[in-house]
């Protein structure tokens, strides 16, 4: 068998394998199964492309690459052609005639790598073709790209991936390599189980992207904050701004354009042709800011994206990491910036509560959201938190917002107890729940019409929090909701509800530490973050 390094040099023109590539390639060429976890840009493709070529040259036949992304298939096949490798794809963009042509080449053994969508791979027709190759010993390897798609805990569940177990069941002796850039412990275990990869060797790369600096700011006037961030640190550079909704994408793109930036919108509601044009411009021209929903980005390989900004919080850390990972693929300094506020917490919680999913599923989603909220609320190193989520230990990075300028924190425990006890007393007194504004008015001793109407100026905590600013109390509420010590009932006018977790805070067993973003609070003691 030809040495993998010589294939790397001869076919791809690279000098050396990177990180764990050499070990993975060797293991797979020898016929072992592998599960590869490597961050975006880590070099996953070569992990199966080099073995595919080596095994083909040794007479083992073709490699089938399962990929969910048509755009990515096209890019990869194009690049392989340029390198002189026989590659082809089968997907819905081919006419019947073209597909038949590819199948013919496949059966004649003229293809080294065949890329196919999962729904195609598992059709009886395709499986029969694989049978015929298998019987002749011409099925060298299965590569399952974006393997997290098999898991409903991942951020991109595709039911078609579930059917891929057939590959193992029907072609037991053919080695398989599954690859993904995003997998926390839960998703990872799910991939192993769903794809029956119990015997596969796991290759886990560090997920650290040391050239990306992470910053999470408290949301005040997000568009203005974004503008300052771009103009201050990334003027004229390419970046992606993620927003939750199409409407927000449009508005933000317009605002940024009005300020002289070249900002283009991208979301699923735009015509295919417009989307394509914007994407092409983003890839070709310098300094374009793409304002997009998460519909944008998968399979986009632009090395010099200098920043990724989130105007709204994503669902979980995997999504956040995947999206921010699109910055700085060239290894040069890049920034991940996010604005985060109370409304994000409320929205994300509501989306989970209102989803039609089962309770077990919602529980897992809540857990994942909590991890992201903890990251957003963190006053210590963001990178340590992020990597910790992926099971990796690390030291404070010196490169995130919290490392660069350790936030002043203040002890919001007292404010938190007063808020919770106000919520409790008001609920007791009136038998119904109220929203954040009303609760804060009571605590701050503001005798509004509504407060008087309900007689809440007679509640014992009325005015007890006069020292706290509204911004401070909002911060406390946000953290209480973020940590589950308080719930927002979306079905009932966003009223605040005590939870199981409220008790520990009420009893003073759990401290509430907040980053200080406004003028020094008079109601809490100031101290530097540890
Ligand atoms: P991933 O799929 O993990 O996001 P890719 O396979 O697209 O990453 O690789 C990212 C980039 O790194 C590509 O431009 C690829 O050509 C380059 N690359 C990968 N491995 C090597 C290597 N050993 N030497 C040099 N460049 C590499
Ligand atoms: Zn840090």
From TrEMBL:
One of its GO terms (biological process) is DNA replication. PANTHER family: ATP-DEPENDENT DNA HELICASE Q1, DNA HELICASE RECQ FAMILY MEMBER. Its EC number is 5.6.2.4. Its cofactor is Mg(2+); Zn(2+). Keywords: ATP-binding, DNA damage, DNA recombination, DNA repair, DNA-binding, Helicase, Hydrolase, Isomerase, Metal-binding, Nucleotide-binding, Zinc. It catalyses: Couples ATP hydrolysis with the unwinding of duplex DNA by translocating in the 3'-5' direction. Belongs to the helicase family. RecQ subfamily. Pfam families: DEAD (PF00270), Helicase_C (PF00271), HRDC (PF00570), RecQ_Zn_bind (PF16124), RQC (PF09382). Residues 25-201 form the Helicase ATP-binding domain. The keyword Nucleotide-binding applies. It comes from the Bacteria. The keyword Ion transport does not apply. Residues 222-373 form the Helicase C-terminal domain. The gene is recQ1. This is DNA helicase RecQ. GO terms for cellular component: bacterial nucleoid; cytoplasm; replisome. One of its GO terms (molecular function) is hydrolase activity.
């Amino acid at each position: 068998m030809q040495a993998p390094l010589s294939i790397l040099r001869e076919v791809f023109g690279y000098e050396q394998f990177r990180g764990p590539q050499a070990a993975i390639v060797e293991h797979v060429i020898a016929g072992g199964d592998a599960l590869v976890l490597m961050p975006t840009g880590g070099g996953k493709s070569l992990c199966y492309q080099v073995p595919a070529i080596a095994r083909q040259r040794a007479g083992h036949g073709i490699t089938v690459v399962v990929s969910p992304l048509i755009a990515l298939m096209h890019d990869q096949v194009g690049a392989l052609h340029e390198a002189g490798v026989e590659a082809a794809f089968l997907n819905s963009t081919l006419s019947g005639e073209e597909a038949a042509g590819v199948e013919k080449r496949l059966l004649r053994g003229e293809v080294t790598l065949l890329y196919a969508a999962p729904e195609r791979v598992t059709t009886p027709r395709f499986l029969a073709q694989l049978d015929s190759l298998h019987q002749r010993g011409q099925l060298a390897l299965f590569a399952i790209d974006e393997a997290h798609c098999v898991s409903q805990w991942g951020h991109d569940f595709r039911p078609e991936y579930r059917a891929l177990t057939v590959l193992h069941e029907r072609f037991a002796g053919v080695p398989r390599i599954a690859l993904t850039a995003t997998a926390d412990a839960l998703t990872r275990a799910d991939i192993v189980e769903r794809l029956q990869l119990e015997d596969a060797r796991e290759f886990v790369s560090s997920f650290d992207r040391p050239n990306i600096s992470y910053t999470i700011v408290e949301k005040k006037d997000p568009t203005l904050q974004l503008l300052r961030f771009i103009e201050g640190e990334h003027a004229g550079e390419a970046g992606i701004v993620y927003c939750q909704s199409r409407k927000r994408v449009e508005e933000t793109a317009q605002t940024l354009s009005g300020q002289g930036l070249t900002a283009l919108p991208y979301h699923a509601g735009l015509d295919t042709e417009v989307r394509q044009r914007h994407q092409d411009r983003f890839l070709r021209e310098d300094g374009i800011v793409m304002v997009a929903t998460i519909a944008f980005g998968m399979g986009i390989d632009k090395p010099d994206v200098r920043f990724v900004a989130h105007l709204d919080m994503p669902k979980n850390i995997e999504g956040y990491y995947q999206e921010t990972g699109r910055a700085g693929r060239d290894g040069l300094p890049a920034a991940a910036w996010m604005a985060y506020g109370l409304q994000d917490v409320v929205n994300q919680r509501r989306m989970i509560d209102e989803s039609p999913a089962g309770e077990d599923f919602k529980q897992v989603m809540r857990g994942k959201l909590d991890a992201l909220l903890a990251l957003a609320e963190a006053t210590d190193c963001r990178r340590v938190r992020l990597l910790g989520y992926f099971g990796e230990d690390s030291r404070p990075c010196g490169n995130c917002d919290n490392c660069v300028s350790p936030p002043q924190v203040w002890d919001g425990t007292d404010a938190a107890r007063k808020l919770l006890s106000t919520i409790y007393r008001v609920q007791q007194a009136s038998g119904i729940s109220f929203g954040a504004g009303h609760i804060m008015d009571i605590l701050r001793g503001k005798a509004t019409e509504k407060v008087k109407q309900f007689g809440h100026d007679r509640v014992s905590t009325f005015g007890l929090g006069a020292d706290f600013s509204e911004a401070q109390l909002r911060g406390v509420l946000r953290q209480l909701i973020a940590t589950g010590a308080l719930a927002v009932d979306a079905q009932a006018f966003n009223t605040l509800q005590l939870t199981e977790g409220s008790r520990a805070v009420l009893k003073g067993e759990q401290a509430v530490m907040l980053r200080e973003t406004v003028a020094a609070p008079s109601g809490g003691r100031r101290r530097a973050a540890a």
